Amino acid sequence: MELFLDTANLNEIQRWLDYGVIDGVTTNPTIMMRSGVTDIVGHTREIARIISPLPLSAEVTTNDFTEMIVEARQLASLAPNIVIKIPVINETGSPALGVIHTLAQEGIQVNATAIMSFGQSMLAAKAGAAYVSIFAGRIADEGGDAAAVIGRTAEWLDRWDLHARIIVGSVRETMNVQDAAEAGAHIITVPPALLEKLIDHRYSRDTVRGFNEDARAVRLAAQAPQSPR
Predict the structure, then answer these.
(1) Domain boundaries, the chain
(2) Catalytic residue among 45, 85, 152, 186
(3) Is 85 a known active-site residue?
């Protein structure tokens, strides 16, 4: 299983790259806005450069399918490791499968995003998506079983030898990461704050504190003058 960092913060990206635990980065317009990005194209190019050759998923910012294709081609031209995020349907409910298929036929890797069901995953994969992004948190918000959607998708892809990979996003708690991993996700995309929680544990810190205190006590005892016999 791989971990993608869900952020546009360059410092956080470099930090987690240095830790050696992330395998790519995902962004979207909302993440860019929250990071104070004003030049989306320039910032996308810079992230791609920093993480190369790891994949960067960058999202189109239009509801029109023709404009999606134009924007996708422009983004893909910025760097060879850029993957284009295309919503599986647009905001009016029209399927973007034709966009996914067109881009895939051109050799542009597509991350079909905003997926909430097994059926959407299935159709996106058949259209040619390299990745299918299942929004686990939002499925759970509506009372759905995110683990079941992930598991059914993983089983179906394997059964028919399709090469799309499952990205699980919209994770809110550390347990969501573990649940997605156990359900069969190939990739989980996680914001930096959640990775902090995933690595931290109170009792790990307490254990290390105890080790260090004992080590200091041993050193002090070794430095103390010995009583004459």
Answers:
(1) 2-223
(2) 85
(3) yes
Q: What's the pLDDT band for 228 if we cut at 50, 70, 90?
A: low
DSSP string, 120-145: HHHHHHHHT-SEEEEEHHHHHHTT--
Per CATH, the architecture of 2-223 is what?
Answer: Alpha-Beta Barrel (3.20)
pTM, to two decimals: 0.91
Structure tokens at 84: 């284009």
> For residues 166 and 168, what is the distance between their CA atoms, to the nearest angstrom?
6
Residue where the block lists tokens 């760097």 = 79
- In the chain, the DSSP E strands lie at 2-6, 24-26, 56-59, 82-87, 110-115, 131-135, 165-169, 187-190
Segment 95-105 shows an average pLDDT of: 98
Tokens of 96: 């973007």
